[in-house]
Amino acid sequence: MRPTKPHSINDLIKRVDNIAGLTLGQLANEYNFKTPDDLLREKGWTGQLIEYVLGATAGSKPLPDFEDLGIELKTLPISYKGKPLETTFVSVTPLMNVTGMTWHTSSVRKKLNHVLWLPILSERDIAPFDRTIGSGFLWQPTFEQDALLQRDWEEQMELIALGRVDEISGHLGDAMQIRPKAAHSKIVTDAIGPNGQIIKTLPRGFYLKTSFTGEILKQQFQL
């Protein structure tokens, strides 16, 4: 039977505590969740499994995963030393009609307003199904973190508005970067070009840098 959505934050945290210490394989077996043969090709499977087990409802809608609670779920692959192994996708970057957009009403800020982080021990030498789920925790950005994210968002969105999307690289931003998000280079979308004309470019996404998520882990676990 599909798990119901959590009715309160306490209910959600209980579920998170119940799965800590299990491997992804054990969790999938317990819930008869379909498992792919090759997780390298199914990068989103871990997130889908955790969303299913915890009763997330948003699916692909641009809303927090637990809509009623206003909480976004983020799985975070970590190393043996407790450091993030990869950047964290937040949301798709708008490339058209960006004039008048503000940080306070942006999808990034809505997603990061209240996050349930779920660290998963994911070193390369651990088979995907043997990866262990850590202790999940709730996080909200501090005033300083919010200001840092806002600065990164505004700086990079200004380049998009000015038709300079192709100047944006992963080096920009202290906490958050914009980079291509597409399965392959044949997928393109509309964007504003240098002279205000419409150009074709790769879709982009906002990603939290590992230095930023590493600080969140340090704060939580006093690493």
Number of strands: 9
SSE-based structural type: alpha+beta
Q: How much of the polypeptide forms β-strand, as a percent range?
A: 15-25%
Mean pLDDT: 92
- Helix-strand topology string: HHHEEHEEEHEEEEH
The largest sheet is: 4 strands, mixed
The low-confidence runs, each spanning 5 or more residues with pLDDT under 50, are: none
Binned, the helix content reads 25-40%
Number of helices: 6
Basic shape: globular
What integer value in Å does the Rg equal?
Answer: 18 Å
Distance between the terminal alpha carbons, to the nearest Å?
Answer: 38 Å
Main location: cytoplasm
Domain DNA mismatch repair MutH/Type II restriction enzyme Sau3AI: 54-152
Pfam families: MutH (PF02976)
Subcellular location: Cytoplasm
Could you characterize the architecture of this molecule?
By secondary structure, the chain is α+β, with helices and mostly antiparallel strands. It is 29% helix and 19% strand. It contains six helices and nine strands, in the order αααββαβββαββββα. The strands form three sheets. Strands 1, 3, 4 and 5 form a four-stranded mixed sheet that branches. A three-stranded antiparallel sheet has the order 2-9-6. Strands 7-8 form a two-stranded antiparallel sheet. β7 and β8 form a beta hairpin. The longest helix is centred in the last third of the chain and has 19 residues, at 143-161. The model has no long low-confidence stretch (mean pLDDT 92). Sequence-specific endonuclease that cleaves unmethylated GATC sequences. It is involved in DNA mismatch repair. This is DNA mismatch repair protein MutH. InterPro entries: DNA_mismatch_repair_MutH (IPR004230), DNA_rep_MutH/RE_typeII_Sau3AI (IPR011337), DNA_rep_MutH/T2_RE_sf (IPR037057), Restrct_endonuc-II-like (IPR011335).
